[in-house]
Amino acid sequence: MALPPDFTLLQVVPELETGGAEQTTIDVARAVIAAGGRALVATRGGRMTARLEADGARLAQMPVQSKNPLVMLGNAARLVDLIRTERVSLVHARSRAPAFAALWAARTTGTPFVATYHGVYKAQSSLKRWYNAVMTRGDLVIANSEYTRAHVLAEHGVDPAKVIAIPRGVDLDRFNPSWVTPDRVEALRRAWGIAETDQRTRFLLAGRLTRIKGHLTIIEAARRMKDAGRMDFLILFAGDDQGRTGYGEELAKAIAQAGLGDQVRAVGHCDDMPAAYLLADVALLPTTVPESFGRTAVEPQAMGRPVIASNHGGTVETVVDGVTGWLVAPEDAPAWAAAMTRAIDLGPGKRGEMGQTGMNRTRQLYRVDAMCAATLAAYERVLEARP
């Protein structure tokens, strides 16, 4: 079975600022359009909107990021109107708060409903477990890794046949070293204030400035490395605080107190991540809580860079310890210092070999076209099961 010729997909995602759920939204919209369908996205909007619309998808702007019950009720009514007006074939929710409005609208209009579990949601109470379970109340649940699928089954007790794992994909055209021109890397080097003669090993931690990304662990590891006499490294934090300034200020203070002003830099949001990974020698993913997938562990591998990642969550599937990178205990600063020192001492040649192995593995397992094909096949399965 193929998608019907008049197929229209409505994805519902809180924002289009940055992140894995947002990128996957854009990837799947592009795939639906390439297959001859139409793609709508209901969202508050954000900096990735231009990319969405450039691919031919349409934006339906509404405050679906809100957890206010009255706003959520209004969103449900707006989504009902949108589904009926645009003759939507299937609704795909990618976050919990929007999923309530999207599920209500889908049931009201008799439209198939799919949800993707993009994160591992913890529940400390029955109320929170009920809130999280909205993602399992539709026709099908898509988990973004086997780790996430196991969590959904354990947490909610749903029929295993209703939960499928589709690993998040990487755009191997965008994340391809052959397509990144030297001037793009050079532009970033200048923008980030790295001297042309700076031969230090460069570590890149990409992701928004939030505590769970583990920046403080890396600062403490860097302090230990410096205390041990190592000065041959530069750590770059690429990401912004998205308006939450307190944590960014805390990081700046920690860097200053550790005397690491010349070793650790926060360079802000980066729009050219392929060039950023080429500018770096090693990528870091020191998350303090398990990532359900960990896109920033896979993208650098696609660019031929080894990764040092926390030994939990989806990264144990995407990083092969000692082969494509290293897995380290989360929040264990001495262990991170040791792993980073090991990466420096390995030298460019051995790091390059690890990077090539990671690149080959990524191209086999995490292609965005494979992820999109599996997602469209899931849509077909849901439509076929409906009368």
Your description of this structure?
The structure is a single chain. The protein has 387 residues and is α/β, with parallel strands linked by helices. 46% of the residues lie in helices and 16% in strands. The strands form 2 sheets. It has a 7-stranded parallel sheet, with helices on both faces. A 6-stranded parallel sheet has the order 10-9-8-11-12-13, sandwiched between helices. α4 links the parallel β4 and β5. α3 crosses α4 (96-109) and α7 crosses α10. The mean pLDDT is 93.
Key terms for this structure?
387 residues, alpha/beta, six-stranded parallel sheet, 14 helices, 13 strands, globular
Rg over CA atoms = 21 Å
Helix content: 40-55%
Strand content: 15-25%
Number of strands: 13
Form type:
globular
Largest sheet: number of strands, sense, barrel closure? 7 strands, parallel
Name the average pLDDT: 93
Strand order, main sheet: write it out: 3-2-1-4-5-6-7
State the low-pLDDT regions, or none.
none
Query: SS-based structural class?
Result: alpha/beta
Distance between the termini: 15 Å
Tally of individual helices: 14
Order of H and E elements: EHEHEHEHEHEHEHEHEHEHEHEHEHH
Task: Briefly say what this structure is.
This protein has 387 residues and is α/β, with parallel strands linked by helices.
List the helices and strands and how they pair.
Layout: E1 8-12, H1 20-34, E2 38-43, H2 49-54, E3 58-61, H3 69-86, E4 90-93, H4 96-109, E5 113-117, H5 126-132, E6 140-143, H6 146-156, E7 163-165, H7 182-191, E8 201-206, H8 215-227, E9 233-238, H9 245-257, E10 264-268, H10 273-279, E11 282-285, H11 295-302, E12 307-310, H12 315-318, E13 325-328, H13 333-365, H14 368-385
Parallel strand pairs: 1-2, 1-4, 2-3, 4-5, 5-6, 6-7, 8-9, 8-11, 9-10, 11-12, 12-13
Helix pairs in contact: 1-14, 3-4, 7-10, 8-13, 11-13
